[in-house]
Design a protein that fits this description.
240 residues; alpha+beta; two-stranded antiparallel ribbon; 7 helices; 35% helix; 22% strand; globular
């Protein structure tokens, strides 16, 4: 039986066949590209950890530099106890959704060329339009910030997207997370350059992003009550 090429049945069969072919091609492409995509994410993560301790890297040398400078990695729980497992493989957004007492919290340790050691804590949170994240490097006192790296998925260019720029990140250096034995972390002050100084908060305050209030508040929550606070027990145990 010859199909009428102008009929509805022919159109339906043709469309169905094309959909199947396109779906098969897309599925094949996704499977072939998946290992490369996963490797790109792995390398990017290594670069961010290194950057938080002031080590710049390229895609080509990130893995070698990571192996050179990152001397140890551990997992802790919210009680500050160490757990077994691969810290690098932990999915932070998934842990953020888990029950608090069951969260697995990764920490990476770096030894720099000058012999000093830093602890790097990965961060995860929510901005205005989507996820934000970062890496917080601490001095060996587990209190003083050595450096930070922040990034985002879709914050507004020129406003919230400024969280990954030096003018926003650099002022975190030297700030402290504890006031005595109390975990206070970092507060972001609205009002432009110098707002934190005007508020008299030189140890725990940084300036929020002008015009990026919601992103700034999301980052502040990430640094206080929605993620970094999970590490409070471990930091308090090791604080010098």
């Amino acid at each position: 039986m010859k199909l009428d090429t102008n009929g509805n049945l022919y159109t339906f069969i043709y469309a169905a066949v094309m959909v199947i072919i396109v779906a098969a091609v897309l599925a094949f492409t996704a499977i072939k590209l998946q290992p490369k995509q996963e490797n790109n994410l792995k390398v990017e993560k290594m670069q961010n950890i290194l950057q938080s301790v002031g080590i710049q890297s390229k895609v080509e040398n990130a893995e070698n530099l990571y192996k050179k400078y990152i001397t140890k990695q551990i997992i802790v729980n919210t009680k500050g106890d160490e757990l077994e497992g691969d810290a690098f493989a932990i999915n932070l957004p998934a842990e953020a959704k888990a029950e608090v007492n069951s969260r697995k919290l990764p920490i990476f340790f770096a030894k720099l060329d000058d012999g000093t050691e830093k602890a790097v804590i990965p961060l995860t949170g929510k901005g205005l339009w989507g996820p934000i994240w970062g890496y917080l490097a601490l001095e060996s006192d587990f209190n003083t910030i050595y450096g930070v790296v922040f990034d985002h998925k879709g914050e507004t260019p020129g406003l919230g997207a400024e969280i990954n720029k030096d003018p926003f990140e650099l002022p975190f250096k030297g700030k402290t997370l504890f006031e005595g034995n109390k975990f206070v972390s970092i507060t972001l002050y609205k009002g432009g350059k110098g707002a934190s100084a005007a508020a008299g908060d030189t140890n725990h305050g940084c300036d929020a992003i002008s015009g990026g209030t919601i992103t700034s508040k999301g980052l502040e929550r990430m640094m206080k009550e929605e993620w970094l606070n999970n590490y409070e027990a471990y930091l308090a145990k090791n604080k010098k």
